[in-house]
Write a structure and sequence with these properties.
With 138 residues, the chain is α+β, with helices and mostly antiparallel strands. It has one domain: Double Stranded RNA Binding Domain (2-Layer Sandwich), CATH 3.30.160. It is 46% helix and 14% strand. A four-stranded antiparallel beta sheet has the order 1-2-4-3. A hairpin with a 4-residue loop joins strand 3 and strand 4. The protein starts with 9 loop residues before the first helix and ends with a helix.
Length: 138
């Protein structure tokens, strides 16, 4: 289900569509605006869990992230499940691997995926020529 864009203009939508199609998400400098910290993971894993800090937590101020994202996506990003209400930061955690670097990369991938999903929710697909012809014939 796609959300209607009532406050965004057609230019905002086309700019967001272009940004998403050109993989603008991968061009966000998350390493410079975000902070990755590591802590001890919980759960199964034996004694290794108790001795290494492999759980990665990526914290990005929402305002800093929104500067790199088209305005049409802002409202959907603010509703993301990763947004901490009190601090207004995006917080993504991963402890799926025993390696810090793998968990950090997993955090970045999860954030990229959530931004792309927000774009899919907000930005409607372009109508194909075939679909326009079909509607015209109706």
């Amino acid at each position: 289900m796609q959300r209607a864009l009532s406050s965004s203009s057609d230019n905002d939508v086309s700019a967001a569509r272009s940004w998403l199609n050109n993989h603008g998400v991968e061009n966000i400098p998350l390493q410079t605006i975000g902070i990755v910290s590591f802590s001890r993971s919980s759960g199964p894993g034996g004694q290794h869990v108790n001795t290494t800090s492999s759980k990665a937590t990526l914290r990005i101020p929402l305002d800093a992230l929104l500067q790199h994202i088209p305005s049409a996506l802002h409202n959907e990003i603010k509703r993301s499940r990763y947004v901490a209400a009190k601090s207004k930061d995006l917080i993504v955690q991963s402890d799926s691997s025993r390696k810090q670097s793998d968990n950090a990369q997993s955090c970045y991938k999860r954030l990229y995926k959530s931004i792309l999903e927000a774009g899919q929710q907000v930005v409607p697909n372009e109508t194909s020529a075939e679909q326009m012809k079909h509607v015209k014939n109706l």
